[in-house]
Amino acid sequence: MKVVHTIEELRDQLRGQLRVAFVPTMGNLHPAHLALMKMARQHGDPVVASIFVNPLQFGPDEDFSEYPRTLEDDIRKLEQERDVYVLFAPNEKEMYPEPQNFQIQPPGGLGGILEGAVRPGFFTGVSTVVMKLFSCVQPRVAVFGKKDYQQLMVIRNMCRQFQLPVDILAHETVRDADGLALSSRNRYLSAHERAEATQLYAALSAAREQVLDGKLDTDTLSAWGHQLLSDRGWQVDYFSLRRQRDLLAPEPHEIEQGEPLVILAAARLGDTRLIDNLEI
Ligand code: PAF
User: At what angle do helices 149-161 and 122-137 cross, to 10 degrees?
Assistant: First the structure.
């Protein structure tokens, strides 16, 4: 695997390549990232991964400075798996040599709800860096995980509206045996919190059963999820049933008629904020 730190080196490595499959990450790689690389390998050649902790997508009170940076370890994992041909690991100056005044602002309807409502500016930061990474890598396909469900949708919509020649592929959420979705932020959890963290997936699974049984409308479901997790000591940002196609709340007749749905949740356990979702 070639490790490059500048856009110029990256372009030199990829000159003439028309089938690049790309996996952007912020590093601290775990098996869910490695699964994205495997999927990329099935859909293109060569596979390019990036590791960049993007300051634009962190709010002032968020964990940008504490976010785990483990480049040496990440390189070792990628070399072991042998799926990636080039790793692009730029520093901040390489990605943002001057203030990034041109930014991609997702529409409020999608970018301003759920994660976008709780983390203002988050999807602008994500869209801007992904657009910039796409411009550096020029991939034919790019792979994202479904754990960041809304991010995946924002990026898909961005590519469609800008007519970028990149197919966005979605990988299923990778979970530990007890259901907890893999995330770099899980490492912030204490042993006690790690045991409790499985309750987020448990709550989503129970909610899904209730929707499938036709028992709950959207408001009752949301209140039920909030109550369940709050009673266990979580601080809930949202627990919400939405349509898969646009993440808006479904009408009751749409639920009855089998509209594809997704329940999305975000909640804080101690200092750690976890997100997860389940499709129906
Ligand atoms: O999902 C992530 O790790 C990040 O949001 C991404 C897509 C790499 C952009 O910084």
Answer: 60
